[in-house]
Amino acid sequence: MVYRKELDPDASLQAALGARLRQEREGRGWSQRQLAERMGYSPTQISHVETALKIATLPFCRRLDAVLELAGTDESFEGQWFHMKHGALLEGFPKFISYEGRAAEIRLYEVGVIPGLFQTLEYAAVIENHSVTRGAITAEQAEERVTTVANRQAAISRNPLPAVHAVLDESCIRRQVGSAEIMRRQLDQLLAIAEQPNTILQVAPFTMGERRPFNLPVTILTLPDRVVMSYAESAHRGHLERDSQRVEPTLSAYYQLQKYALPQATSVEVIHQVRKGIP
Fold first, then answer.
1. Residue 91 has what pLDDT?
2. Domain at 197, CATH number
3. From edge to edge, which strands make up the β-sheet containing 228-233?
């Protein structure tokens, strides 16, 4: 009799993924060898993931989704991988960054802080370390979040570069985070990003008043196949919207935001002025 290792899905996120892989495979009546042939992996690799002897990699999960026809769904193994890898992140955010890393166009609006895609790592560390100080997260979770910032930035530095259109509320550049030197370096990075050929950067001034269509941050992604989705957060979770009829009003509101925000040349000058005024 062949020994069959039974997993407790509640033992760890790694065990939960392995147990689900076995369930999906057996539900289709496939042996480990048959699944391995479809994926281009060895039966041993399938066995090791199923029994939690090895952690599934992101390429493994993406290939698995393709074979099981789960890519882009709420049940994808890629989404489960991001949840396993980034357990300290807000619910819904790991799935969002999996799409962000593949997007052809990224439109974003941020309030109060420099967006993660543009943060220096020391700026990001100041924010997360304060969360540790007030007891919201652990030091290990803070380190994980800063690493996620670096990984997100690396993901959009690919070839070809995605088109990035960012509108920052004026509060993002005027709210000092960390020391004066950290803030100066952060604004220097923001100015450098504005010079990149794939980036448009605008500041939404306080004087926009009631013409500002958003009160909370929002991101709109356009994937290479032209599918458009939006992402927004509440205090406890992130919500990724992929229904085109629901995304369309958000996209229309974003166009209005662009219309009333300062042009890029003026926005860059405002950032320069703020930087000069840092004591």
1. 64
2. 3.30.870.10
3. 199-204, 163-169, 105-110, 218-222, 228-233, 238-241
